[in-house]
Each structure stands twice: as structure tokens, then as C-alpha cells.
Amino acid sequence: MPKFMSRNDLLLFAGFSLVVLTMPIWLAPFGAGYPDLLQRFMIFGIFAVGFNILFGLTGYLSFGHAAFFGVGSYAAVWSFKLLTLDAIPAMIFAVVISGLFALVIGFLCLRRSGIYFSILTLAFAQMSYNLAYSVLTPITNGETGLQLTLSDPRVIDAAVGQGFVGQPVPNILGQQLSGYAGFYFCAGFLILAFFIAQRIAGSPFGMMLKAIKSNQTRMQFTGFNTRPYALSAFVISGMYAGLAGALLAVTDPLAGAERMQWTASGEVVLMTILGGVGTLVGPVIGAWIIKYFENILSALNDNILARFWSFLPEGVADVLVKVTSKFVGDGWHLTLGLAFVIVVIFLPGGIMEGVRRVAGLFRRSGSSGAKTAPQTQPAE
Amino acid sequence: MANPNVVLHVADVHKRFGGLHALSDIDLQIEEGKTHAIIGPNGAGKSTLLNVIIGKLAPSSGQVVFDGNVLTGKKPYQINQLGIARVFQTPEIFADLSVLHNVMIPALAKRDGMFTLNMMRSLESETGIRAKAEHMLEDVGMLNRRDMLAGSLSRGDKRRMELAMCLIQHPRLLLLDEPTAGMSRHDTNTTIELLKKIKARGMTKVIIEHDMHVVFSLADKISVLAQGRIIADGTPDQVRGNPKVQEAYLGGAH
Ligand SMILES: Nc1ncnc2c1ncn2[C@@H]1O[C@H](COP(=O)(O)OP(=O)(O)OP(=O)(O)O)[C@@H](O)[C@H]1O
Ligand SMILES: [Mg+2]
Questions:
Q1: Residue B228 CA: which ligand 1 atom is closest?
Q2: Which one of A35, A237, A298, B7 is least enclosed by Cβ atoms within 10 Å?
Q3: DSSP code of residue B220
Q4: Measured from the CB, is residue B17 less than 6 Å from ligand 1?
Q5: B106 touches A at CB < 8 Å
Q6: B36: closest CA among B183, B190, B239?
Q7: Whole-angstrom Cα distance, residue A376 to residue B52?
Q8: Contact B124/A213, CB-based, under 8 Å?
Q9: Is A105 inside any structural domain?
Q10: From the CA atom positions of chain A, what is the Rg in Å?
Q11: Among the bound ligands, the one closest to the CA of B42
Q12: Is A238 part of a structural domain of the chain?
């Protein structure tokens, strides 16, 4: 292969990896430098990167991707219960199962496009949620959620004579995944997930996906059968979701049906749009921002707000506490909705468009002749 | 088929849209290597005929045969893979992609077929396809625009690029729906020269055109369509002298 990766792609990949691996350091001043939250950053970053392959590249908006996330979690927990507490088999198992599940759902939903496709995915995901919640209780343990117990068979662990004392926890080759070990484990997968997405976007296959988004009719009259392309994108993004779900089960081995609910499906759509649809890093940044503010805002309560506004006269402070309390705690979704509306109105390309605009300003002030430069494709 | 040189045979095709007879009794034989023009007033059914050929529309009755293959019932991508490409009346292009990528995509369809999962190869390593696309863009005089977004091109340039997208596939049959509409006189003449050049390479063409200058400088045969029927057909001279044509079509213009 003459050129494996262009210089720009390599730089982007190296930069991304560096930013991810040093997160515990540079996020510490923001109060986010602890493993539990960082792991969620990684997990939802993977979810969003995969979702973008379907939505951002191919132009199919799925409202049901939480179903694959949930299936990944269940599959991983079952692997812990039946086979071994080692994380690697659980993740492979989860990715395969969610990929197969996505193959079936995608095959059915891709018979339609546009809004009908979106509604079909939503319907299938809600069906999966309801099945997990009630009918499939023997597999999902219904409302309680699927948990590890001391009496699980774990045939592989038993065969190699590995016994545990106390609560069973997932590990990797006997190494526990608590604290920063868990973060670096997840970070490795995010970097791998990003790398694969980058390769896909820069391949002929990726160009076909973008072409399908741009003009599906032309693709068909150009000799492409677009259905298997879209289905491949669907399955790949389903596998990404399954991987993310499995990682969540690795760091916290409990799988519940609420992970498959439509709000969870909607969240990944918001992440992708907030960060920048169709860009590589945008969706990851969107995921980080949403998870960060969820963490900060949902922890606030009236007492903290009262202290925050206490510098104001009492009457004013009371009103402000009343008003702002609606936007924090359980009401943080209100803030999210508001932020989302503002971004979509003023920056339809998401945060990445904002970054491009700022970079453009700098470039223009740098060279005065840049105004006459020919219009080129936006950088990805 | 009596004539062994016929590559495309539109046999007794009818197309109805509700009560509207858009095509009635169409029987058309296109010979290999020839340029066949279809002319007729607005709404005559010319575009509909091309839609039936490329599988965008199913005929109400009749069938289309291309080089021994019955096209009727086949999917558009299968029909393209058999060697038929089309320039549309309103350009069908990838507006969000660069001009170069617009032309590389059809070349990849020709090389790799209707589906390949080549996602671990880099686009950068497709040097052969890229060179071919650049060469093609040079032929249509658009190499200097290769990094532009296709959607930002002028109407005439979109058409020229769409023509390049078709030509790069070296189709056996090229269908052109008003390929010079929206072009300047200069660009129209360049396009005529280009179409003459590919005719010399033996490509069969069906061309719909309102511009009689284009029609008479390219066509070997002309069929005149009015209200969904072929009212005349023959060499340019025969058609020009036909009183029925004068009345139905040319009469208004001359
Ligand atoms: N998909 C469709 N559904 C219903 N009616 C249609 C459809 N496509 C075309 N028609 C009608 O069929 C008739 C023929 O249309 P067609 O586009 O083939 O004309 P044309 O000869 O290409 O005209 P023009 O020179 O304006 O391009 C018109 O009356 C048109 O309104
Ligand atoms: Mg027409």
C-alpha cells in the first residue's frame, strides 16, 4: 500500500490519542479528573463515534441506537455469568451479538428512508425496551436488572480453577479494572474506535457512504446497490454501540432495561449534533460535554444554589434559587434542551463549525489574500 | 430483431400516469455507434422514455431490450452495470462532495461493481482511479475546478461534470437529456466537440435536445416525439423536410 494514512490524518489521530490519554491531568482543574466520570466520557465517546458513521456519513438518522447499547450490556453480563469474569471475551461476545441484532433490525428498517426510517428504528428500540423490561425477564431479569452473583456458573473460570472470594468483579487477565486501570482500558478502546472510524471515513467505502447521504438516486444510476452500503454502516454503528454498552458493563456489571429507552437513543443524537454531524471528533466532544454537564448540573441542589446566590439581597436570591433550581438536579435536561436549541439555531454545524469559524477568522487575519482563495471542501 | 446492429430496442412501450398517456406505442431501435436524437415539444414524453430505459420507471406495457438483456424489471444499478449511463435534465450530482470525488465514484462503480466492503483501503492509495478522474476532468475542461464543492458549480459546469461522471464509465450506451441546457454558446460548442470525439470511439448515444444546432451537428438519426407518440423518424434531412414535423414542432420555431 503506497499511502497508509495521509499526514493530516496521522496528526489528527496522534493529537486525539494524546488528548484522551492525558484527560486525567487536564480535566482535574474542572473537577472531572476522576475515573468514574472519565470512563463514561470514553464509553459515550465510542457510542457517538459509531453513531456518526450511520448518521453523519450515511445520512440515516436512527432513533433507536440505545437498543444496541443495551444488548451489548446484557451480552457482556451474560458472558461474565456463564463464561468468565475476563473482560475481553465479554466484549467480543457483546460486539458480535449487537452486530447480529443490528443486522436484523437494520435489514428491516432500511426498507424505508428519511423520517420513516427514523420512526421504524424508534419503534424497534421501544419494542426491545419493553421486551427487556417484561417479556424477556428470564434473560434480562426485568426491572431489577441483570447482575452477577456468587452462584453464576462461569464455566471457563471454573475449568481453569479460578475461584473468587467476595463479590465477583470483571477483570482483565486477573488484573482488576478499578480506578484508573478501568479508565485506561476504556481509553484504549475509544482510541481504537476512533482509528477505525477515521479509516472508514477516509476509504472508498466511506466516500460511498457520503455519496449516499448526498444523492442516493445518483448512486443507484451510477451502478451502486445502496442498500448493502447503508446496512453495513448500520451494523458497524450497532457494533460500536454494543462495544460501548459492554464497556459500561465491564466498569459496572449491571445491565438494566432503562439503557435501551428512547431517551438514551435521543441522547446520542444530541451528542452528535451538538459536536458536529459528519465530523470525526465532533461527536466525541459532544458526548464529553453532555456527560460533563450532566454530572455537574445533576449534582446541584437548592442548598448549593442558595450558597451560590447568597451574595445577592435575600429576596432576589430566593427568586434566582427558585428559577435556577428548575435547570439543575433532575431538571438538567431542561438546560440540555436549551443549549441544544441555541447550538442548532446559531451553529447548525455544531461545535466543530464554531471551531472552523474561529480558525477561519485567524487565517483571514493571517493572510490578507486568502479571501480570493478558491472554495475547497471543508476539512474533516 | 432484424437488424443485428441494434443495441437498444424499445419494444411497444406504453406508459400511463393515471389517465395521461405519457408514452404510446413507442418502438425504437438504436444502432450501435450511432447518435440518435429525440426531439419534440415540452411534455412530449422524452424524459419519460429515458426513465423507462434506465429503470427509474416501469413501463405500463412493452419492454426494453439492451444487447440481448431484457432491462424491464431490472434495478437501476443493474442496468448501469450493463453499460448504460445517463445525464439528467436537472443535474443529479453529489453536491456535498468535491468535483474530483464526484468523478471518482462512477469510476469505482465500474471497477469494483455494485457493492464492495473496501473500508480498510485508503482513498489516497487509489492513485489509478484518481489519475483517470483527473484526465477525464481535463477532457471536459474542468481540471482547475477539481477541489471545488460540486454544489457550488454553475449550472453549465454541473452538466459538464455530470457528463464526465458518465463518460468515465465508458458506457456502451450514453443517454443525454438536454446536455447543453444552461450552457453558454462557447461551452455548448466545446460539448459538441467532446460528444463528436466520443462518437469517434464508437459510443452509442441517445440525445434529447431542444437546440437544433446541437441536434443537426451530432445526430445520425432523429425521432420526433409529440404527445407520447413517435410522429416521424429518419435521417436529419428526412425529418427536416417532413411536413408533419414542421407542423408539430419545428413550425413554431422557424
Ligand atoms: N412521474 C410522473 N408522474 C406523473 N406524470 C408525469 C411523471 N413524469 C412525467 N409526467 C408527465 O408526463 C408528460 C411527459 O413528461 P416528460 O418529462 O417526459 O416530458 P419531456 O418531453 O421530457 O418535456 P421537457 O421538454 O419539458 O423536458 C408530462 O405531461 C408530465 O407532466
Ligand atoms: Mg424532459
A1: 14
A2: A298
A3: S
A4: yes
A5: yes
A6: B239
A7: 37
A8: no
A9: yes
A10: 22
A11: 1
A12: yes
Q: How many structural domains compose chain A?
A: 1
Cell 442558595 found at: A306
Residue type, A325: S
ipTM: 0.92
H/E stretch holding A210: helix A204-214
Would the pLDDT of A368 be above 70? no
pLDDT at residue A148, as a whole number: 82
Domain spans of chain B? 1-83+172-254, 95-170
Helix H, strand E, coil C: the string for A82-147 is HCCCEHHHHHHHHHHHHHHHHHHHHHHHCCCCHHHHHHHHHHHHHHHHHHHHHHCHHHHCCCCCEE
Torsion sign, CA atoms A50, A51, A52, A58? positive
Dihedral pair phi/psi, residue B36, rounded to 5°: -115, 115
The DSSP symbol for B248 reads I
Give the sheet arrangement for strand B69-70, strand by strand.
Answer: B20-31, B6-17, B61-66, B69-70
Cα(A160)–Cα(A117) distance, integer angstroms: 47
C-alpha separations of A277 from A48, A99, A186, B42 in Å: 10, 23, 23, 42
Tens of pLDDT, residue by residue over B47-106, are 999 999 999 999 999 999 999 999 999 999 999 999 999 999 999 999 999 999 999 999
Give domain status of residue A49, yes or no. yes
Using alpha carbons, select from A111, A71, A96, A119 the residue that is nearest to residue A231.
Answer: A111
Q: Say how far apart CA B175 and CA A380 lie, in whole Å.
A: 35
Q: Which amino acid is at A343?
A: V
Cell numbers placing B21? 398517456
φ, ψ of residue A283 in degrees (nearest 5): -60, -35
List the single residue in A199, A203, A211 with the smallest CB-CB distance to B105. A211
Other beta carbons within 10 Å of A110: 21
Domain range holding A97?
7-261
pLDDT (tens digit, 9 = 90+) per residue, B152-165? 999 889 999 999 99
Q: Are A51 and A272 in contact (CB under 8 A)?
A: yes
**Superfamily of B1-83+172-254 according to CATH:** P-loop containing nucleotide triphosphate hydrolases (3.40.50.300)
DSSP string spanning A217-266?
HHHHHTT--HHHHHHHHHHHHHHHHHHHHHHHHHHS-EE-GGGGSHHHHH
Residue A52 lies in a domain: yes
Please report which ligand is nearest the Cα atom of B226.
1
Burial class from Cβ neighbours inside 10 Å (0-12, 13-18, 19+) for residue B111 reads middle
H or E element in which residue A359 lies: helix A350-366
Residue A286 near residue A276, CB atoms below 8 Å? yes
Q: How confident is the model at residue A259 (pLDDT cuts 50, 70, 90)?
A: confident
Q: Please name the residue ranges forming H helices in chain B.
A: 46-53, 76-81, 99-112, 127-139, 155-167, 185-200, 212-218, 236-241, 243-245, 251-253
Interface probe with A: pick from B51, B53, B54, B77, most Cβ of A within 10 Å: B77
